[in-house]
Design a protein that fits this description.
Glutaredoxin, Immunoglobulin-like, single chain, six-stranded mixed β-sheet, alpha+beta, 10 helices
Protein backbone atom coordinates (compact mmCIF):
# COMPACT_ATOMS: atom_id res chain seq x y z
CA UNK A 1 0.00 0.00 0.00
CA UNK A 2 1.25 3.48 -0.82
CA UNK A 3 -0.10 6.60 0.88
CA UNK A 4 -1.95 9.31 -1.04
CA UNK A 5 -4.13 12.14 0.34
CA UNK A 6 -7.93 12.05 1.44
CA UNK A 7 -10.66 9.54 2.77
CA UNK A 8 -13.44 7.16 1.69
CA UNK A 9 -15.52 4.33 3.10
CA UNK A 10 -14.85 0.63 2.53
CA UNK A 11 -17.40 -1.73 1.01
CA UNK A 12 -17.79 -5.43 1.62
CA UNK A 13 -18.76 -8.42 -0.48
CA UNK A 14 -21.20 -9.50 2.23
CA UNK A 15 -23.59 -6.76 1.14
CA UNK A 16 -23.82 -8.37 -2.29
CA UNK A 17 -24.98 -11.66 -0.78
CA UNK A 18 -27.53 -10.40 1.74
CA UNK A 19 -30.70 -12.43 1.41
CA UNK A 20 -28.93 -15.18 -0.53
CA UNK A 21 -28.63 -17.64 2.37
CA UNK A 22 -24.93 -16.88 2.74
CA UNK A 23 -22.87 -19.45 4.62
CA UNK A 24 -19.17 -18.95 5.27
CA UNK A 25 -17.24 -22.16 5.61
CA UNK A 26 -13.97 -23.94 4.95
CA UNK A 27 -12.73 -24.26 1.41
CA UNK A 28 -13.77 -27.62 0.00
CA UNK A 29 -11.58 -29.59 -2.36
CA UNK A 30 -12.97 -29.37 -5.91
CA UNK A 31 -14.80 -32.56 -6.89
CA UNK A 32 -14.78 -34.06 -10.33
CA UNK A 33 -17.73 -32.97 -12.44
CA UNK A 34 -20.54 -35.48 -12.76
CA UNK A 35 -20.97 -35.86 -16.52
CA UNK A 36 -24.45 -37.28 -15.97
CA UNK A 37 -25.67 -34.04 -14.33
CA UNK A 38 -23.48 -31.16 -15.46
CA UNK A 39 -22.76 -29.77 -18.87
CA UNK A 40 -20.50 -26.82 -19.62
CA UNK A 41 -20.23 -23.80 -17.33
CA UNK A 42 -19.46 -20.17 -18.12
CA UNK A 43 -19.05 -16.78 -16.52
CA UNK A 44 -19.22 -13.16 -17.59
CA UNK A 45 -18.66 -9.88 -15.77
CA UNK A 46 -19.38 -6.17 -16.07
CA UNK A 47 -17.21 -4.08 -13.81
CA UNK A 48 -19.12 -2.34 -11.03
CA UNK A 49 -22.29 -4.25 -11.89
CA UNK A 50 -22.16 -8.03 -11.55
CA UNK A 51 -20.54 -11.35 -12.26
CA UNK A 52 -22.90 -13.92 -13.76
CA UNK A 53 -22.20 -17.65 -13.49
CA UNK A 54 -24.12 -20.17 -15.59
CA UNK A 55 -24.06 -23.95 -15.46
CA UNK A 56 -25.86 -26.38 -17.78
CA UNK A 57 -27.56 -29.25 -15.92
CA UNK A 58 -29.79 -32.18 -16.78
CA UNK A 59 -32.24 -34.33 -14.88
CA UNK A 60 -34.20 -33.64 -11.71
CA UNK A 61 -32.57 -31.53 -8.98
CA UNK A 62 -33.77 -31.18 -5.39
CA UNK A 63 -31.69 -28.08 -4.51
CA UNK A 64 -28.63 -26.19 -5.68
CA UNK A 65 -26.00 -23.85 -4.28
CA UNK A 66 -22.83 -22.11 -5.44
CA UNK A 67 -19.40 -21.76 -3.82
CA UNK A 68 -17.57 -18.54 -4.72
CA UNK A 69 -13.90 -17.84 -4.03
CA UNK A 70 -12.63 -14.27 -4.26
CA UNK A 71 -9.05 -13.28 -3.43
CA UNK A 72 -9.08 -10.25 -1.16
CA UNK A 73 -5.68 -9.68 0.38
CA UNK A 74 -5.66 -5.91 -0.03
CA UNK A 75 -3.49 -4.74 2.88
CA UNK A 76 -5.66 -1.76 3.50
CA UNK A 77 -8.90 -3.76 3.72
CA UNK A 78 -9.14 -5.72 6.97
CA UNK A 79 -10.72 -9.14 6.81
CA UNK A 80 -11.01 -11.80 4.15
CA UNK A 81 -13.98 -12.34 1.88
CA UNK A 82 -14.78 -15.90 0.91
CA UNK A 83 -15.12 -18.61 0.26
CA UNK A 84 -18.86 -17.98 0.35
CA UNK A 85 -21.74 -20.33 -0.37
CA UNK A 86 -25.15 -19.08 -1.48
CA UNK A 87 -28.39 -20.80 -2.37
CA UNK A 88 -29.34 -20.93 -6.07
CA UNK A 89 -32.81 -20.99 -7.55
CA UNK A 90 -34.26 -23.87 -9.56
CA UNK A 91 -32.78 -24.36 -13.05
CA UNK A 92 -34.51 -22.64 -15.95
CA UNK A 93 -34.30 -24.22 -19.41
CA UNK A 94 -31.71 -26.68 -18.14
CA UNK A 95 -29.38 -24.04 -16.70
CA UNK A 96 -28.45 -22.87 -13.20
CA UNK A 97 -27.65 -19.17 -12.98
CA UNK A 98 -26.27 -16.99 -10.20
CA UNK A 99 -25.60 -13.25 -10.33
CA UNK A 100 -23.12 -11.76 -7.87
CA UNK A 101 -23.90 -8.08 -7.40
CA UNK A 102 -20.57 -6.23 -7.45
CA UNK A 103 -22.00 -2.73 -7.29
CA UNK A 104 -21.67 -2.82 -3.51
CA UNK A 105 -19.03 -5.55 -3.14
CA UNK A 106 -15.30 -5.07 -2.69
CA UNK A 107 -14.21 -7.41 -5.46
CA UNK A 108 -10.81 -6.07 -6.53
CA UNK A 109 -10.20 -5.37 -10.23
CA UNK A 110 -8.83 -8.21 -12.35
CA UNK A 111 -9.35 -10.68 -9.52
CA UNK A 112 -9.55 -14.32 -10.64
CA UNK A 113 -12.99 -15.22 -9.26
CA UNK A 114 -13.81 -18.93 -9.08
CA UNK A 115 -17.23 -20.51 -8.67
CA UNK A 116 -18.58 -24.04 -8.46
CA UNK A 117 -22.20 -25.15 -8.47
CA UNK A 118 -23.31 -27.97 -6.20
CA UNK A 119 -26.59 -29.85 -6.53
CA UNK A 120 -28.53 -32.26 -4.35
CA UNK A 121 -30.35 -34.94 -6.34
CA UNK A 122 -33.74 -36.39 -5.33
CA UNK A 123 -32.08 -39.44 -3.74
CA UNK A 124 -29.90 -37.17 -1.56
CA UNK A 125 -26.74 -37.58 -3.62
CA UNK A 126 -24.55 -34.45 -3.68
CA UNK A 127 -22.69 -33.64 -6.88
CA UNK A 128 -20.20 -30.84 -7.61
CA UNK A 129 -19.94 -29.20 -10.99
CA UNK A 130 -16.80 -28.03 -12.77
CA UNK A 131 -14.96 -24.89 -11.65
CA UNK A 132 -15.88 -21.72 -13.49
CA UNK A 133 -13.24 -18.99 -13.60
CA UNK A 134 -13.84 -15.33 -14.42
CA UNK A 135 -11.30 -12.50 -14.50
CA UNK A 136 -13.17 -9.53 -13.08
CA UNK A 137 -11.65 -7.01 -15.48
CA UNK A 138 -12.08 -3.27 -15.07
CA UNK A 139 -13.70 -2.90 -18.47
CA UNK A 140 -14.52 0.79 -18.03
CA UNK A 141 -11.29 1.63 -19.86
CA UNK A 142 -9.23 0.54 -22.84
CA UNK A 143 -5.93 -0.63 -21.38
CA UNK A 144 -2.59 -0.40 -23.15
CA UNK A 145 0.26 -2.70 -22.17
CA UNK A 146 4.04 -2.69 -22.01
CA UNK A 147 5.96 -5.80 -20.98
CA UNK A 148 9.22 -5.57 -19.05
CA UNK A 149 11.55 -8.08 -17.42
CA UNK A 150 9.01 -9.11 -14.76
CA UNK A 151 6.38 -6.39 -14.70
CA UNK A 152 3.56 -6.10 -17.23
CA UNK A 153 2.44 -2.47 -17.18
CA UNK A 154 -1.21 -1.75 -17.99
CA UNK A 155 -2.04 1.92 -18.44
CA UNK A 156 -4.81 4.14 -19.78
CA UNK A 157 -3.55 7.65 -20.38
CA UNK A 158 0.19 8.14 -20.75
CA UNK A 159 2.70 8.88 -23.49
CA UNK A 160 4.79 5.99 -24.72
CA UNK A 161 7.93 7.47 -23.14
CA UNK A 162 6.29 8.02 -19.75
CA UNK A 163 4.81 4.52 -19.82
CA UNK A 164 8.31 3.19 -20.44
CA UNK A 165 9.60 5.25 -17.50
CA UNK A 166 6.94 3.76 -15.20
CA UNK A 167 7.76 0.25 -16.40
CA UNK A 168 11.48 0.73 -15.81
CA UNK A 169 10.83 2.06 -12.31
CA UNK A 170 8.64 -0.93 -11.45
CA UNK A 171 11.10 -3.47 -12.86
CA UNK A 172 13.91 -1.70 -11.02
CA UNK A 173 12.02 -2.04 -7.75
CA UNK A 174 11.57 -5.78 -8.33
CA UNK A 175 15.28 -6.22 -9.07
CA UNK A 176 16.39 -4.27 -6.00
CA UNK A 177 13.91 -6.00 -3.67
CA UNK A 178 14.78 -9.47 -4.99
CA UNK A 179 18.45 -8.78 -4.31
CA UNK A 180 17.75 -7.48 -0.81
CA UNK A 181 15.56 -10.45 0.14
CA UNK A 182 17.58 -13.12 -1.64
CA UNK A 183 14.87 -14.37 -4.00
CA UNK A 184 14.64 -14.80 -7.77
CA UNK A 185 11.64 -13.30 -9.54
CA UNK A 186 10.52 -14.80 -12.85
CA UNK A 187 6.72 -14.96 -12.63
CA UNK A 188 5.02 -11.87 -14.12
CA UNK A 189 3.61 -9.10 -11.95
CA UNK A 190 0.69 -7.19 -13.47
CA UNK A 191 0.67 -3.48 -12.67
CA UNK A 192 -2.42 -1.38 -13.46
CA UNK A 193 -1.96 2.40 -13.41
CA UNK A 194 -4.99 4.67 -13.14
CA UNK A 195 -4.60 8.30 -14.29
CA UNK A 196 -6.78 9.88 -11.61
CA UNK A 197 -7.77 9.44 -7.99
CA UNK A 198 -11.46 9.12 -8.85
CA UNK A 199 -10.93 6.25 -11.33
CA UNK A 200 -8.66 4.49 -8.83
CA UNK A 201 -11.07 4.84 -5.92
CA UNK A 202 -14.07 3.74 -7.96
CA UNK A 203 -12.12 0.67 -9.04
CA UNK A 204 -10.69 -0.38 -5.69
CA UNK A 205 -12.94 1.18 -3.02
CA UNK A 206 -9.80 2.36 -1.23
CA UNK A 207 -9.62 5.31 1.18
CA UNK A 208 -8.46 8.56 -0.35
CA UNK A 209 -5.15 8.47 1.52
CA UNK A 210 -4.13 5.32 -0.37
CA UNK A 211 -2.43 5.81 -3.75
CA UNK A 212 -1.24 2.29 -4.42
CA UNK A 213 -2.19 -1.30 -3.59
CA UNK A 214 -0.44 -4.66 -3.97
CA UNK A 215 -2.37 -7.94 -3.98
CA UNK A 216 0.18 -10.77 -3.72
CA UNK A 217 -2.40 -13.56 -4.03
CA UNK A 218 -2.69 -12.90 -7.75
CA UNK A 219 0.52 -10.90 -8.22
CA UNK A 220 -1.16 -7.64 -9.15
CA UNK A 221 -0.47 -4.01 -8.25
CA UNK A 222 -2.48 -0.83 -8.71
CA UNK A 223 -1.52 2.82 -8.46
CA UNK A 224 -2.63 6.36 -9.25
CA UNK A 225 -0.11 8.16 -11.45
CA UNK A 226 -1.24 11.23 -13.32
CA UNK A 227 0.27 11.63 -16.80
CA UNK A 228 3.91 12.82 -16.63
CA UNK A 229 3.96 12.95 -12.82
CA UNK A 230 7.57 11.81 -12.61
CA UNK A 231 7.90 12.58 -8.90
CA UNK A 232 5.08 10.36 -7.66
CA UNK A 233 5.87 7.69 -10.24
CA UNK A 234 9.40 7.44 -8.83
CA UNK A 235 7.89 6.67 -5.39
CA UNK A 236 4.93 4.43 -6.11
CA UNK A 237 6.06 2.39 -9.13
CA UNK A 238 8.87 0.52 -7.28
CA UNK A 239 6.98 0.57 -3.96
CA UNK A 240 4.05 -1.72 -4.79
CA UNK A 241 5.91 -4.59 -6.51
CA UNK A 242 8.30 -4.68 -3.53
CA UNK A 243 5.31 -5.95 -1.53
CA UNK A 244 4.95 -8.83 -4.00
CA UNK A 245 8.63 -9.72 -3.66
CA UNK A 246 8.46 -9.41 0.13
CA UNK A 247 5.46 -11.77 0.12
CA UNK A 248 7.39 -14.26 -2.02
CA UNK A 249 10.24 -14.16 0.51
CA UNK A 250 8.16 -14.33 3.69
CA UNK A 251 4.95 -16.07 2.63
CA UNK A 252 3.77 -18.85 4.93
CA UNK A 253 0.42 -20.44 5.83
CA UNK A 254 0.28 -18.94 9.33
CA UNK A 255 0.68 -15.18 9.57
CA UNK A 256 2.03 -12.04 7.93
CA UNK A 257 5.00 -10.00 9.16
CA UNK A 258 4.21 -6.70 10.90
CA UNK A 259 2.73 -3.99 8.68
CA UNK A 260 5.48 -1.52 9.57
CA UNK A 261 8.14 -4.01 8.41
CA UNK A 262 6.38 -4.68 5.10
CA UNK A 263 5.74 -1.01 4.37
CA UNK A 264 9.14 0.01 5.70
CA UNK A 265 10.95 -2.28 3.26
CA UNK A 266 8.78 -1.04 0.37
CA UNK A 267 9.67 2.56 1.24
CA UNK A 268 13.31 1.63 1.71
CA UNK A 269 13.52 0.04 -1.74
CA UNK A 270 11.57 2.81 -3.47
CA UNK A 271 13.12 5.94 -1.99
CA UNK A 272 15.21 5.08 1.05
CA UNK A 273 15.11 6.98 4.32
CA UNK A 274 14.84 10.32 2.54
CA UNK A 275 14.88 13.84 3.94
CA UNK A 276 11.09 14.23 4.13
CA UNK A 277 10.75 11.04 6.20
CA UNK A 278 13.64 12.12 8.46
CA UNK A 279 11.96 15.45 9.07
CA UNK A 280 8.69 13.79 10.12
CA UNK A 281 10.46 11.36 12.46
CA UNK A 282 12.58 14.09 14.05
CA UNK A 283 9.55 16.35 14.51
CA UNK A 284 7.43 13.61 16.10
CA UNK A 285 10.33 12.66 18.40
CA UNK A 286 10.55 16.26 19.61
CA UNK A 287 6.76 16.56 20.00
CA UNK A 288 6.34 13.20 21.72
CA UNK A 289 3.77 12.15 19.09
CA UNK A 290 5.57 9.10 17.67
CA UNK A 291 3.58 5.87 18.15
CA UNK A 292 5.39 2.68 19.08
CA UNK A 293 6.21 0.34 16.20
CA UNK A 294 4.02 -2.16 18.04
CA UNK A 295 1.03 0.09 17.33
CA UNK A 296 1.73 -0.32 13.59
CA UNK A 297 1.72 -4.11 13.63
CA UNK A 298 -1.56 -4.71 11.78
CA UNK A 299 -2.95 -1.50 10.30
CA UNK A 300 -1.88 2.04 9.59
CA UNK A 301 -4.04 5.03 10.50
CA UNK A 302 -5.71 6.41 7.38
CA UNK A 303 -6.00 10.10 8.23
CA UNK A 304 -3.51 12.23 6.32
CA UNK A 305 -1.54 13.40 9.36
CA UNK A 306 -0.84 10.02 10.94
CA UNK A 307 -0.40 7.94 7.79
CA UNK A 308 2.59 10.00 6.60
CA UNK A 309 4.23 9.61 10.00
CA UNK A 310 3.50 5.85 9.95
CA UNK A 311 5.35 5.45 6.65
CA UNK A 312 8.21 7.66 7.79
CA UNK A 313 8.60 5.76 11.05
CA UNK A 314 8.47 2.42 9.23
CA UNK A 315 11.23 3.28 6.76
CA UNK A 316 13.28 4.77 9.60
CA UNK A 317 13.00 1.49 11.49
CA UNK A 318 14.01 -0.56 8.44
CA UNK A 319 16.90 1.81 7.77
CA UNK A 320 18.10 1.24 11.34
CA UNK A 321 17.68 -2.52 10.93
CA UNK A 322 19.72 -2.64 7.71
CA UNK A 323 22.44 -0.20 8.81
CA UNK A 324 22.92 -1.78 12.24
CA UNK A 325 22.58 -5.49 11.42
CA UNK A 326 23.34 -5.65 7.69
CA UNK A 327 21.90 -7.63 4.79
CA UNK A 328 22.74 -11.04 6.33
CA UNK A 329 20.27 -10.22 9.12
CA UNK A 330 17.64 -9.27 6.53
CA UNK A 331 18.11 -12.65 4.85
CA UNK A 332 17.76 -14.44 8.20
CA UNK A 333 14.67 -12.41 9.04
CA UNK A 334 12.75 -13.13 5.84
CA UNK A 335 13.83 -16.79 5.94
CA UNK A 336 12.47 -17.13 9.49
CA UNK A 337 9.16 -15.63 8.44
CA UNK A 338 9.09 -17.93 5.43
CA UNK A 339 9.27 -20.90 7.84
CA UNK A 340 6.27 -19.56 9.75
CA UNK A 341 8.18 -18.34 12.82
CA UNK A 342 6.39 -15.90 15.10
CA UNK A 343 7.42 -12.25 15.06
CA UNK A 344 9.54 -12.65 18.17
CA UNK A 345 11.12 -15.88 16.94
CA UNK A 346 12.02 -14.29 13.61
CA UNK A 347 13.50 -11.15 15.19
CA UNK A 348 15.49 -13.13 17.76
CA UNK A 349 16.88 -15.43 15.06
CA UNK A 350 17.96 -12.50 12.88
CA UNK A 351 18.70 -9.66 15.30
CA UNK A 352 19.04 -11.26 18.71
CA UNK A 353 16.16 -9.27 20.20
CA UNK A 354 12.39 -9.66 20.14
CA UNK A 355 10.09 -7.17 18.41
CA UNK A 356 9.46 -5.15 21.58
CA UNK A 357 13.20 -4.97 22.18
CA UNK A 358 13.85 -3.71 18.65
CA UNK A 359 11.00 -1.20 18.98
CA UNK A 360 12.53 0.10 22.22
CA UNK A 361 15.97 0.34 20.58
CA UNK A 362 14.42 2.28 17.70
CA UNK A 363 12.78 4.79 20.04
CA UNK A 364 16.03 5.20 21.95
CA UNK A 365 17.99 5.74 18.73
CA UNK A 366 15.64 8.59 17.86
CA UNK A 367 15.57 9.97 21.41
CA UNK A 368 11.81 9.50 21.39
CA UNK A 369 9.13 8.41 23.84
CA UNK A 370 6.20 6.61 22.28
CA UNK A 371 2.76 8.12 22.62
CA UNK A 372 0.32 5.87 24.47
CA UNK A 373 -3.22 5.39 23.16
CA UNK A 374 -6.25 3.58 24.55
CA UNK A 375 -7.40 2.91 28.14
CA UNK A 376 -4.86 3.60 30.87
CA UNK A 377 -4.65 2.25 34.46
CA UNK A 378 -6.51 4.39 36.96
CA UNK A 379 -4.07 6.41 39.07
CA UNK A 380 -3.78 5.39 42.71
CA UNK A 381 -5.93 7.42 45.11
CA UNK A 382 -4.15 9.68 47.60
CA UNK A 383 -2.70 7.71 50.47
CA UNK A 384 -2.89 4.34 48.72
CA UNK A 385 0.38 2.45 48.74
CA UNK A 386 2.08 2.20 45.36
CA UNK A 387 3.20 -1.06 43.78
CA UNK A 388 6.65 -0.68 45.32
CA UNK A 389 5.17 -0.33 48.80
CA UNK A 390 5.70 3.44 49.06
CA UNK A 391 3.01 6.00 49.73
CA UNK A 392 1.54 7.76 52.75
CA UNK A 393 -1.33 6.57 54.86
CA UNK A 394 -4.01 9.16 54.09
CA UNK A 395 -7.81 8.90 54.21
CA UNK A 396 -7.89 6.54 51.19
CA UNK A 397 -5.60 4.08 52.96
CA UNK A 398 -7.60 4.28 56.20
CA UNK A 399 -10.87 3.56 54.39
CA UNK A 400 -9.33 0.54 52.70
CA UNK A 401 -7.93 -0.74 56.03
CA UNK A 402 -11.31 -0.34 57.71
CA UNK A 403 -13.05 -2.24 54.93
CA UNK A 404 -10.56 -5.10 55.15
CA UNK A 405 -10.98 -5.28 58.93
CA UNK A 406 -14.77 -5.40 58.61
CA UNK A 407 -14.62 -8.25 56.10
CA UNK A 408 -12.16 -10.15 58.29
CA UNK A 409 -14.42 -9.71 61.35
CA UNK A 410 -17.43 -11.02 59.42
CA UNK A 411 -15.49 -14.11 58.33
CA UNK A 412 -14.45 -14.80 61.97
CA UNK A 413 -18.07 -14.46 63.21
CA UNK A 414 -19.31 -16.90 60.56
CA UNK A 415 -16.63 -19.42 61.48
CA UNK A 416 -17.50 -19.14 65.17
CA UNK A 417 -21.19 -19.70 64.42
CA UNK A 418 -20.42 -22.86 62.45
CA UNK A 419 -18.30 -24.19 65.35
CA UNK A 420 -21.12 -23.54 67.83
CA UNK A 421 -23.72 -25.30 65.66
CA UNK A 422 -21.41 -28.27 65.22
CA UNK A 423 -20.86 -28.50 69.00
CA UNK A 424 -24.60 -28.47 69.73
CA UNK A 425 -25.13 -31.25 67.20
CA UNK A 426 -22.53 -33.46 68.87
CA UNK A 427 -24.03 -32.81 72.34
CA UNK A 428 -27.50 -33.82 71.13
CA UNK A 429 -26.14 -37.13 69.79
Amino acid sequence: MRRFAQTRSVRRLSAALVGAALVLGPLAQPAAADSGVFGSGSGTSEFGQDIIFSQAVSGSIKSASILIRIPNDSISLPGIVGPAMAAVGAPADGELTYSLDTSTASVPPFAPVEAQFEVVLPDGTVSDGPEIKVIYADDRFTWQIKVGKVVRLHYIDASDSFAQTMLDLADGGVTKAASLFGVTETKPIDYYVYPSQSSFQQGLSEPGTVGGVALPSYRTCFAIVQPDDDSYAADVMPHEPTHIVFSDATGNPYHDPPRWLNEGFAQYVAQGYDSSSRLLVEQSARDGTMPSLLALTNYFPLDSDRIYLAYAESVAAVDLLVSKFGRPAVLKLVAAYGKGDSDDEAFKAALGVDVAGFAADFMAANDATSQTYGPQPEPASPGTASSDGSGSSGPGGLYLLAALMAVSGLILLMAAARIAVSARGRAAR
